Structures are given as C-alpha cells and as structure tokens.
Amino acid sequence: MPNRHLPLAIRTAFIVLLVLLWDSSVRFGWIDSLFLASPVHTAEKFAATTRTALPHLYATLTAFTVAFVSGVLLAAVLGFAISLSGYTYKVFMPLLVLGVTIPKVTLLPLFVLWFGIEKTTIIVYGMLSAFFPMIVNVMAASLEVKPNQVVLARAMGCGKVRTFAKVIFPAMLPVLSSGCFYACNAALMGVFIVELALSRFGMGALVHDLAMTF
Predict the structure, then answer these.
(1) Rg over CA atoms, the chain
(2) pLDDT (tens digit, 9 = 90+) per residue, 188-212?
(3) What's the rounded Cα separation, in Å, for the pair 22 and 29?
(4) What's the gap between Cα 150 and its chain centre?
C-alpha cells in the first residue's frame, strides 16, 4: 500500500473498530441498551431524529454565528487598540487572562437577570465566551511582530497600510488563527450550555429533552 494511503487506512480501521466495540458493548450487555442504543438502532432512527433536529440546529447555528463573529470582531478591535501601547498592554493583559480563566457559567444567573431567558442571553454569553480567548491571542500576536521588520519595510518606502498588509498581519496570522480556533470552540460551547440550561429551542434544548425522555 502506498504511504499516502496509509493514514486514511488507519483512520478507517480506527472508526470501524470503534463501531464494532460500540455494537459489542450493547449486544453482550456490557452497557444497558436503555442508555446506549446499538449502531443498527441508531441508524434506524437517524433520519427521523435529523428531521426533528434541523430547526433546532438552525437556531443554534444562527446564535453561534452571531456570537462568534461579534466576539471575534470586538476582540480584534480592542486587542489591536490595546497593543498599540506597551503600557496599556501591561495593564490590561493580566485582567483579560483572568477573564479567560474565570468559569463564566458561574455568572449565568446574572446574565438571566440582565437579559432574560430569550435568545439575547444565548448570544451575549456565547459572544463573551469567544471574546476573551480571542483578545488574549490578538494581544499575544502583536508580540510576534519584530520591530526591525517594520523599520525595514518603512525604509523601503512602504506606507502604514502596506506595512500592515505585508509585514505585521502575516507575522500575527499564526497566533490569530489559533485564537479563532479557540474562540470558535468557546462560542459554540457557550451557546450550547445556555441552551441546555435555559432555552426551549436549539440543540442544547433538544438534547436536554431527549435525555429526560430517554
């Protein structure tokens, strides 16, 4: 087998092994079928469950998209602004890192008091979940820009816009990409958590209802 096909074969074999283990655990009674359906029964109910879930999926994806985009844009603007000065960086960076480490789910009762139990709470909570990891990465990305590269670009006649496009942004891009990845995960988890706890609609609410009715 060519080496280029080996990773695909390994991944396929791993998935098949998991499905066999799943089926065996139910078939031989290692796990009660009341709590875990077999692959065959899951496949039988998949189409019907998907039709039921589509409106909920749309609601969740809509809330997630608004929360993620607004959180990332706000973090990018504030992060770039704070990073322009070394003093503001030293002042705000520890506070923003603290915002990442604090479990925001403990503040959920306050969000309910401020915004109610409608979609606004879901979006705001998801936006803040995306905001903090993104702004920390934006500010960390600013450290990747080497001052001598900026000086060299300006010495070669590049203006501010071209220097940003050709030097600053490419240097920051790897860390910004990592920040977007973590912000995406945090926003989706934030939306799902609020739906699971409060909402009557969305994937979190659907999963909660299905769990309660087995």
Answers:
(1) 23
(2) 998 998 888 887 788 888 888 888 8
(3) 11
(4) 32
Higher pLDDT, 42 or 168: 42
Is 213 exposed, middle or buried, given 0-12, 13-18 or 19+ CB atoms closer than 10 A?
exposed
> Alpha carbon of 22 to those of 13, 19, 43, 47, 160: distances in Å?
14, 5, 13, 20, 58
53-74 residue pLDDT tens: 888 889 899 999 999 999 999 9
| CB-based contact 96:139 (threshold 8 Å) | yes
Which residues, at least 6 apart from 27, have a Cβ–Cβ distance to it below 8 Å?
A: 38
Question: Which residue pairs from 44-53 have beta carbons closer than 8 angstroms and sit at least 24 positions apart in sequence?
Answer: 52/206, 53/203, 53/206
CA dist., res. 93 & res. 78, Å (int): 12
Q: Are 92 and 82 in contact (CB under 8 A)?
A: yes
- Residue positions counted in the chain: 214
pLDDT at 147 over 80: no
Q: Would you say 119 and 66 are in contact if contact means Cβ atoms under 8 Å apart?
A: no
Q: Are 195 and 123 in contact (CB under 8 A)?
A: no
pTM: 0.78
Instruction: Write the pLDDT tens digit of every residue in 117-127.
Output: 778 888 999 99
Residue carrying the six token digits 């080496």? 3
